[in-house]
Amino acid sequence: MRSRHTWKLRSRTLELGARTLIMGIVNVTPDSFSDGGEYFHSDLAVEHALKLLGEGADILDIGGESTRPGNKERVSAIEELRRVMPVIKALRREAPDAVISIDTYKAEVAERAITAGAEIINDVSGFAWDPHMAAVAARLGCGCVLMHMRGTPEEWRMLPPISSDELLPVVLQGLRQSAAVAERAGVKREAIALDPGLGFGKNYDENFPLLARLQEIVALGFPLLAGASRKSFIANAVAERRAERDGRRSLEPRDLPAEERLYGTLAANVAAILRGAHILRVHDVAAARDAAAVADKVVNAVRERH
User: Smaller CB count within 10 Å for the chain: N or C?
Assistant: First the structure.
């Protein structure tokens, strides 16, 4: 049964648990694995963000740096700000009620974005890569998403495999540590949400046991965000099934276009909801919203029985 939470953001709260909230992804990057820089120019990014709001996004997650596998190029704070700030400022004018999240691990970027009107810091490092991030989040009083990442993007291809029995304790320990860092810095517990980091330092097959046991992360007592959208572990599963069906060698996940990962993404999204996820981070908002509407009916039916 999915837990209920009131998530405290910078200037408002969000009620979590009655229905799944949808976080729409807006990548203001030239090299994202999923949309290939399609919205790199700020006017296109704003147009896309407004489209996602129209499709039912509850939150917009604005990011200016790709964390694709094997990425060794770190973007400077100055460049990241150049990418995301015009988008945030335009959205504050065009959609003043929109809930904006800044997808960054840099305290300087987070502070500027929150001051400009963003409500949430979404940190893929779980406050581990910038020693100032937790203090900035506490001082600004914003919402925080703390994600688990095993290794760094440039290390992922070299990481040794980890058994399903070992993986969940590693993720739980990492998330506990991130939450503790945040709380010691003064971040309110009710401002924190956790993300298991599907695909971030987990090989293809390691993500499915993690999805199956998300309820054990929910048991830590925080809201849960799941971000499976278009990721390689989904592409790998789809490619394997197609190869089995067609009697040929499996495709490489990178060879499966983003638009052909939608149905697999929806399956992962529904699995996450049924295991307790409160928020989905997605590229395809309309499809995710409709799938979540059905999954939420199942979740609420279980709640009524208890």
Answer: C
- Kindly state the DSSP code that residue 249 receives in the 8-state scheme: P
Domain count, the chain: 1
State which of 53-62, 74-83, 255-264 shows the largest mean pLDDT.
Answer: 53-62
Q: How confident is the model at residue 162 (pLDDT cuts 50, 70, 90)?
A: confident
Q: How many CB atoms lie within 10 A of CB 243?
A: 13
Task: Identify each DSSP E strand in 215-276 by its residue range.
Answer: 225-226
How far apart are the C-alpha atoms of 236 and 105, rounded to whole Å? 28
For the beta carbon of residue 232, count every other beta carbon within 10 angstroms.
Answer: 20
CB atoms within 10 A of CB 166: 11
d(CA 155, CA 229): 22
Question: The tokens of 166 are what?
Answer: 């070992």
pTM higher than 0.90, yes or no? yes
**Which of 268, 269, 233 is closest to 69 using CA atoms?**
233
Report the catalytic residues: 231, 281
Quick: pLDDT tens for 217-246: 999 999 999 999 999 999 999 988 887 777
Which CATH number is 250's domain given? Answer: 3.20.20.20
**For 241-295, what is each residue's pLDDT tens digit?**
887 777 666 667 777 888 889 999 999 999 999 999 999 999 999 999 999 999 9
Nearest to 88 by CA among 118, 128, 131, 126: 118
